[in-house]
C-alpha cells in the first residue's frame, strides 16, 4: 500500500489482519467484540481531553461501563467496527485504534468515526482504517459514507481531501465540517 509505514497480512478470517509498523510495533486488526468493553475503557483513559474532543466533538470526562458495552455490542445488520489491538498477551494488550460505521435509518448512507492513539499516528493507519470502512459500506450496497470533523482538526480534514471526500459545512455546528465520500 502506497504512503504507509506498515505491512499487513491477512489472518484467514474476514477483516482480520496482522499489522507491523516500521518502528516494530505489532497490532492486530479485527472486528470489535463485546469482550472489548474493559479494554476500550482502559484505552480511553490514555487519551488527552483534546483527543477526546476531536473524536466525540465535545468534552467527555469518562467512558462509562455502559457506554463502552454499547460501543462493543454492535448490531451486525447496521453497524461495523474494527479495532487495532496491540499484539500482546490479552492481559497486557490495549486497543490502539477504533474505526466504526453505522448505517442511517434510510439504508442509503453510513456515518463513520475513527480514533487512533497518538503512538500509532503518522503510519498511514487512519487512511487504512477509513478505507476498510468504505470497503465494508460498499459490500452493504451503500451510496455514501460521511463523518463529522471539527474544523480545527486539520490532519483529519487533509486526510479526507486526499481520500476523495467532499468537505463542506455541517448543519450540526458552525465549527464542524461534513466529510462525504460517494461510494458508487
Name its key features:
single chain, 9 strands, 9-stranded mixed beta sheet, alpha+beta, 5 helices, 184 residues, Aminopeptidase, globular
Number of helices: 5
CATH architecture annotation name: 3-Layer(aba) Sandwich
CATH homologous superfamily heading: Gcn5-related N-acetyltransferase (GNAT)
- By secondary-structure content and strand pairing, the structural class works out as alpha+beta
Domain module count: 1
Q: CATH class, please?
A: Alpha Beta
Q: Could you say what the CATH topology is called?
A: Aminopeptidase
Q: Which H/E pattern describes the elements?
A: EEEHHHEEEHEHEE
Q: What is the overall pLDDT average?
A: 90
Oligomer: single chain
InterPro entries: Acyl_CoA_acyltransferase (IPR016181), GNAT_dom (IPR000182)
Protein name: GNAT family N-acetyltransferase
GO molecular function, one term: acyltransferase activity, transferring groups other than amino-acyl groups
Organism: Wenzhouxiangella limi
Overall description:
Residues 27-182 form the N-acetyltransferase domain. InterPro entries: Acyl_CoA_acyltransferase, GNAT_dom. The chain is of the alpha+beta class. The protein has helices at 37-44, 49-56, 65-72, 125-139, 154-162; strands at residues 6-10, 17-21, 26-31, 79-86, 95-103, 109-116, 144-150, 166-169, 176-182. The protein has a single domain (6-143), classed as 3-Layer(aba) Sandwich (Aminopeptidase), CATH 3.40.630.30. Helix content is 26%, strand content 32%. A nine-stranded mixed β-sheet has the order 1-2-3-4-5-6-7-9-8, sandwiched between helices. Strand 5 and strand 6 form a beta hairpin. Helix 1 (37-44) crosses helix 3. The mean pLDDT is 90.
Amino acid at each position: 500500500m502506497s504512503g504507509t509505514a506498515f505491512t499487513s497480512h491477512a489472518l484467514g478470517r474476514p477483516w482480520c489482519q496482522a499489522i507491523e509498523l516500521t518502528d516494530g510495533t505489532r497490532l492486530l486488526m479485527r472486528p470489535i467484540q463485546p469482550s472489548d468493553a474493559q479494554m476500550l475503557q482502559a484505552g480511553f483513559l490514555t487519551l488527552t481531553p483534546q483527543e477526546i474532543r476531536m473524536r466525540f466533538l465535545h468534552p467527555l470526562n469518562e467512558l462509562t461501563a455502559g457506554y463502552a458495552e454499547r460501543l462493543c455490542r454492535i448490531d451486525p445488520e447496521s453497524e461495523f467496527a474494527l479495532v487495532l489491538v496491540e499484539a500482546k498477551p490479552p492481559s497486557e494488550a490495549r486497543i490502539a485504534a477504533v474505526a466504526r460505521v453505522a448505517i442511517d435509518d434510510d439504508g442509503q448512507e453510513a456515518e463513520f468515526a475513527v480514533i487512533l492513539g497518538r503512538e500509532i499516528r503518522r503510519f498511514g493507519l487512519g487512511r487504512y482504517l477509513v478505507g476498510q470502512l468504505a470497503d465494508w459500506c460498499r459490500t452493504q450496497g451503500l451510496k455514501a459514507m460521511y463523518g463529522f470533523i471539527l474544523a480545527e482538526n486539520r490532519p483529519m480534514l487533509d486526510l479526507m481531501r486526499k481520500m476523495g471526500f467532499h468537505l463542506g459545512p455541517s448543519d450540526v455546528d458552525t465549527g464542524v465540517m461534513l466529510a462525504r465520500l460517494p461510494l458508487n
